[in-house]
Specification:
Length: 126
């Protein structure tokens, strides 16, 4: 029987740089299903109640994103954990410094077991 896959949503303003980078970085984990969205109405992938409801765990890049989520999607957020990463909007998409920052800040909130699975998969390919 396989372990339960967790659904994780990454949120920033425009869904162009930070949250899509996080989505791409963490999409490599077998125990996660990831997506990303933006709080702005003109975001690449604007947040919807369905997207918020889908997620088990939500990571926002700034406190303002958490506030917007709580105002617009209060019902969909019932019982969900929303974690603010405090990642400023001064990085490019997939910028190495952003990737390292996200790996450090997000990984501490995810099961360690999955990291072992990811490492095992890497060592099998070496």
């Amino acid at each position: 029987m396989s372990a339960r896959i967790r659904t994780v949503l990454f949120v920033c303003s425009q869904n162009k740089l930070r949250s899509p980078t996080a989505e791409q970085v963490f999409s490599r984990r077998e125990d996660l299903e990831v997506d990303s969205g933006g709080t702005n109405h003109d975001a690449e992938n604007p947040l919807t109640a369905e997207l918020v409801s889908w997620a088990d765990l939500i990571f926002v890049m700034e406190k303002a994103h958490r506030s917007k989520l709580q105002r617009r999607f209060r019902a969909a957020l019932a019982g969900k954990r929303v974690i603010c990463l405090d990642v400023p909007d001064n990085f490019a998409f997939m910028q190495p410094e952003l990737v390292r920052l996200l790996e450090t800040k997000v990984s501490r909130h995810l099961p360690a077991r999955a990291m072992a699975t990811e490492k095992r998969a890497k060592s099998e390919h070496e």
